[in-house]
Design a protein that fits this description.
Helix content is about 35%, strand content about 0%. It is an all-alpha fold and about 100 residues long. The chain has 2 domains: about 60 residues, Factor Xa Inhibitor; about 40 residues, no CATH class. The chain starts with a helix and ends in an 11-residue tail after the last helix.
Amino acid sequence: MKFSLVLFVALVQSAFASDSCYNRCNSGYNPSDDCQCDENCQSYDNCCSDYQQQCVARRSCAGRCGQWEQGECGCDSGCEDYDDCCEDYESECKYDSCAGRCGRP
């Protein structure tokens, strides 16, 4: 019974895994997947439906300051130590005030 449950969960996860970019951003091309999550998928028009949400939006620190998640660029103070900060980390997160960024000097 326990084996059947484990097998069922594994099958359900694998069925949904290949049609989403969750934890697959920039993982490279995989011909066995229904859709892709790599940098070329837009050129080949074979991106998963959540590519923008899972992969493109997560390359920015907008609304993510202080956060870090596996497989994404960092928006926390540790990203500088590991050299994995998002390109906009300094402009979005590094400073406590919004001076010079909020429409006023």
